[in-house]
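User: I need a structural model of Nitrate/nitrite transporter from Pseudonocardia aurantiaca for a docking pre-check later this week. Nothing fancy, just the predicted structure tokens so I can convert them on my end. Input:
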Amino acid sequence: MRVHHRAWIVWAVGLVTYLVGVMHRTSFGVAGLDAAARFHAGPAVLSGFLVLQLLVYAVLQVPAGALLDRFGARKLLAVGALTMAAGQLMLALAGGLPQAILARVLVGTGDALTFVSVLSVVTTWFPPRRVPLMTQLTGLIGQLGQVLSAVPLAAMLHTSGWAPAFVSAAALGVAVAIAAFALVRDRPPSAPPAPPAPSPRAVIDGLVSSWREPGTRLGFWTHMGTQFSGTVFALLWGVPYLVAGQGMTPGEASVMLTLLVGAGIVAGPLFGEFTARHPLRRSWLVLSVIGTTAAVWTVVLLVPPPAPRWLLAVLVVVLALGGPASMIGFDYARTFNPGHRQGTAVGIVNVGGFTAAVLVSLAVGVLLGLGAGYTPGAFRMAWTVQYAVWGLALTGVLIARRRARRKMATEGVVVPPLREALAARRRDLP
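Assistant: Understood. Predicted structure tokens for Nitrate/nitrite transporter:
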């Protein structure tokens, strides 16, 4: 019971650290138009801020996983929070583009260390049956950080000004870094001692072995196809699109971002419980979310702007499903890899969605710049770049799923076709 109580404390502190990290990650999204005016940045330059931040995040995912396997979650959480706080402080004081760009690099660096560390806390401190649900709760409650940026940070930005808003964000980052270092522990007291730190050669071998595992690649494509659209929307282009492309006020756009977070929090536990109960059918949930997201975007883009508010709300709710669905990718990494290389596998999976987000964010900014700027027509054209990523991700999921099932069959686990499984289920019903 004592260890169980401590598990919740350790998880809660790690969760708050991640939540504040999400606030840092998404803070530039609510400040996008303010940043454009402050730094005299056009659409392509503005997208460059997010592209660089996410590129740093994506590139560092695999090294972060290796560092996690070597140094543990406690140190990485504290260092990540302090790094993001330094970035926010630099952004608060930035007088030009070079300082602002370096600030977002620091935010991306600290962000890369945070999420894989929180997932490590979950897998280490909770029994395997609870891990899928706890992973969903971690990811979805952590997304409340978007609310911190969309509401109090945005309000402070528009009332007190640029510097006070980002200095406050930096101070909050320092506070959670101290809490993480003081209260988080890498493993329960009763757990066996950690294995010795791997050598550089062992790290490389673990990386290669993780990528060769079909389940890791299935997680990679899952994360890519489900996560990128909502990430691009929440981190940078959602507010400009809703305001300049759909005629909303900044306040209405903030409500939409809050709806995105709330819908994700509702969906997260449901997705987690489905994953725990039906581990052999996880991919069907992934495919459904990708297909639904593409379909709703198609409807929105076909409707002449401004689209009805209810339709935009439906779009936001569907985008919110991408976060919980992307967590299934981490569940693939956990279940298809041994414990000593799960940090590396999680890092590989996390590269998928954020690499796609980098490419789509950059493409949207370039297309807006080639068009008429922040206009409804330019936004409609720019958002179409998403279809290429959905097509690539769907192909990757289907190929990796087939190879993963083939490997499972050699290990004695046969996944029957869905039609046969449903027929058997109907026969078993009283």
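Before docking, keep this in mind: Residues 207 and 338 are 12 Å apart (CA to CA).
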